Structures are given as C-alpha cells and as structure tokens.
Amino acid sequence: MKKSKGFTVLELLVVIAIIMIITGIVLTSMSSSKAKSIRAATISTLSGVVSELNNCAYDSGYVSTGTAGSQPSATGTPTTGVAICVSGTSPYGALSGHNAKWPALPTGAAYLPVSNGGALTSPPTLIFSASTTSTNVTCTLSTGVCS
Fold first, then answer.
1. 22 or 84: whose pLDDT is higher?
2. How far is it, in rounded angstroms, from Cα 5 to Cα 129?
3. Of 14 and 83, which is predicted with more confidence?
4. Helices (H), strands (E): how many in the chain?
5. 130: which of 4, 40, 70, 84 is 20 to 30 A away, CA to CA?
6. For position 21, what pLDDT does the model report?
C-alpha cells in the first residue's frame, strides 16, 4: 500500500466548507451586536437629554430644536449643537444655568422630529425619538425613561 504525502482534494473541500460555515455564523452575530451597541449608546446619550429637559421644566424653560437664537420650537428635528433649554423671550438664548446642547448621536442613529413640545410643564410631557439601524429609541419625559 502506498503512503500519501498530503491531503486529498475532498479533505481540503470539507475544511474549506467548515471554515465558510463558521465565518457566516460569526458575521451574522457581529452585525446583530453592532446594532445593539448603537441602540445602547443612543439610549445613553438621550438619557442625558432627558435629565436636562426635566431640569429645564423645573426652571420654566422652553425646548429648542431649531437653529441657535431662533424662537423656541419643539416640533422639529433637534439640531446638534443647539441649546436644549432656552428662555421664552428674545434673543432666545440658553436659559441661565442651562448650557447643555443637543448632542451628536452615535454613527447609525439620527434624531426624529419631535411631535409635541414648546413650553415644558412639570412633569413634562414631551416625547422625542431617534432612529437606529434596528429600531427607534423613544424617550418620555414624564417617566424619565428611554427605551
């Protein structure tokens, strides 16, 4: 009987097939993990906004989602870098003691338009959201929860 010095073509094909199956499983689980991490980072970022908006309501401020210096409007899409809590009178600058600005969201997430708002009541009823690659994140100020 003759001794073989290498692998047969069939053995090599089996090994390649196993490697391809494992690669497919790993890539699938990694894409799911990425979507979950974007969602978690978005919830974390928006939780800080919820805290600022609750403080704004306590100080009788107004929510601003528009451009800097414009009249408060909480019916549009939040603009990154604009003060979150502003005074209700011209020039509509940041309310004293409130220097927080709408933060940039993680890559893969974007603010959605706010459907209600303006003057904040206590407890505030404003609801705002952000879309991520997998689902939307919604924050309700009356409960202080983002999910």
1. 22
2. 64
3. 14
4. 1, 6
5. 70
6. 94
pTM: 0.67
Residue type, 116: N
Residues 112 and 43: their CA atoms lie apart, in Å, by 14
Tokens of 144: 């202080």
- Whether pLDDT at 122 is above 50: no
Amino acid code (one letter) for 19: I
| CB-CB contact of 144 with 53 (8 Å) | no
The H-assigned helical ranges of the chain are 9-58
* Mean pLDDT value of segment 112-120: 58
The length of the chain in residues reads 147
Question: Quick count: other Cβ atoms within 10 Å of Cβ 22?
Answer: 10
